[in-house]
Specification:
This protein has 229 residues and is an alpha/beta fold. It contains 9 helices and 7 strands, in the order αββαβαβαβαβαβααα. It is 41% helix and 15% strand. α4 crosses α5.
């Protein structure tokens, strides 16, 4: 109990430090904070633009989030311990890691909030790739609400081909929650297609709001949505 309290305190200290040191210089603006439930299990599903996405997306939010990261990042003992201390769970890439999936479900059942990036890897061009099926299982098994989230601007600041980031303006948007009951009525592939379409629409709304040219997704989401109906 004391250990859990200490880890929670350390998480929020780290979150506040990141909000000041990283989010302020990047002028991170968050829309839709009210869409994140203050209590109960929440599964935030976001696009993935840079290594800093967990900070951009969650440092300005008061809830404590759990994250997943590839297990190779934990090979360094010091860095691995640091990741564990701020609620990052290792997962094996390229295979079905059922032990980690069960752990995430159990954490959600405890009323925790979890943030995942269902694209599986960082974007190569700023656009949102197709979401991978499977994340719906977490909501169905735990009863967690799904909150779609979009980060925009992080790709321009730190694309995957650059070693070091540059300063820019970051926008984050949280969409309306999707009830677990609604997720239960969809198959894994259908939910992935609907989530992809929702995130792409949110991204373009965010880009228009911030004076950017929206991406043309007209030949992607709709075609795939019709294929699973």
């Amino acid at each position: 109990m004391i250990r859990e309290w200490a880890l929670c305190l350390w998480y929020h200290i780290a979150r506040i430090v990141c909000a000041i040191v990283i989010c302020l210089p990047y002028r991170v603006h968050v829309y839709g904070r009210q869409n994140i439930p203050k209590t109960g299990p929440v599964l935030v599903l976001s696009n993935h633009q840079s290594f800093l996405d967990p900070i951009f997306g969650q440092a300005m939010i008061g809830r404590r989030f759990l994250f997943l990261a590839r297990d190779t990042l934990f090979k360094n003992r010091f860095f691995g311990a640091l990741l564990h201390s701020i609620s990052v769970i290792p997962i094996k890439r390229g295979q079905s890691d059922m032990a980690t999936i069960k752990k995430v479900i159990n954490e959600l059942k405890r009323g925790r909030s979890v943030c995942l990036y269902p694209e599986g890897t960082r974007t190569s061009d700023g656009r949102i790739a197709d979401m991978k099926p499977g994340v719906a299982l977490l909501s169905r098994r735990s009863g967690a609400k799904v909150v779609p989230s979009v980060i925009d601007g992080a790709f321009e600041c730190w694309p995957r081909h650059k070693k070091f980031p540059s300063i820019g303006k970051i926008s984050v948007s949280y969409g309306e929650p999707i009830a677990s009951e609604e997720v239960k009525g969809l198959g894994d592939k259908e939910f992935a297609v609907l989530l992809t379409a929702r995130l792409r629409a949110m991204q373009n709304e965010l880009r228009i709001k911030t004076g950017k040219q929206p991406f043309d997704y007209s030949q992607t989401s709709q075609t795939k949505l019709e294929s699973v109906r």
